[in-house]
Design brief:
nine-stranded mixed sheet; 5 helices; alpha/beta; single chain; about 25% strand
Length: about 230
């Protein structure tokens, strides 16, 4: 599988309006429609934004044909600090089922990892995790976590209306496509690695048009982060 890029254990080989009452399966969240406490955000009237964070090669693939992601291990400390800082700007994370299950095997024990991984472990474990899945019996042991996806558009709209910081999507192409096709995405952050695979899975469905709003370059690794909004 492959997935959108958030903080990850880089040494592993990784791969995928009218508001109605929510029907969430709750695991560690007192109320799935209630945002995590965010005192600095008190009084903000703007609606929370949802962004995709997607790693991609220079030739436009989110992973290799077999889900390979070993090419994303750069050893760039500044890039890892970027991911640490990004986690301080969000109040929740969306994952696909497979990404959630894979990361659940790492992050609960990552507090003793070296460098930025230990820094990232705190928010990765404490932030609400919204797992997009159609399986009502899905085990959600990495808490706080809740299953979503029965009516993803309504569920996301409800969360956006709550006070707090923005929401991030760290998921593979299949899950990412659902957010894009439903028009739920406010921003797309492409993390472009200077690698050419020649084959693999594209990160977005065809026909998506975007407008560039910002770019950031990391000199050591050659990674460029491009921030887009829907055109």
């Amino acid at each position: 599988m492959c997935r959108s890029r958030g903080p990850t254990p880089s040494s592993t080989s990784r791969s995928d309006v009218g508001i109605r009452p929510f029907h969430f399966r709750q695991h560690g969240l007192s109320n799935a429609g209630t945002a995590m406490s965010c005192p600095p955000c008190a009084g903000l009237s703007r609606m929370r934004k949802l962004f995709l964070s997607i790693q991609v090669t220079l030739d436009g693939y989110a992973c290799g044909p077999g889900g390979e992601l070993d090419w994303s291990d750069t050893g760039d400390v500044e890039l890892e600090r970027y991911f640490s800082e990004m986690l301080t700007t969000i109040d929740g994370m969306f994952f696909g089922r497979r990404a959630y299950q894979e990361l659940a095997g790492f992050w609960p024990r990552a507090g003793s990892e070296p460098g930025e991984l230990a820094v990232q472990a705190g928010p990765m474990n404490k932030l609400p995790k919204y797992v997009v899945s159609g399986d009502p019996g899905l085990a959600l042991d990495w808490t706080p976590a809740v299953r979503v996806g029965d009516d993803l558009a309504a569920e996301v709209a409800g969360l956006k209306r709550q006070p707090g910081r923005d929401l991030a999507v760290f998921a593979g192409p299949s899950t990412t496509a659902r957010f894009v096709e439903l028009g739920l995405v406010d921003e797309i952050r492409l993390i472009v690695f200077p690698v050419v695979l020649g084959d693999g899975r594209p990160p977005l469905p065809p026909g998506v048009r975007l407008s560039l709003v910002d770019s950031t370059t990391f000199a050591k690794s050659g990674v460029v982060i491009l921030r887009y909004v829907p055109a």
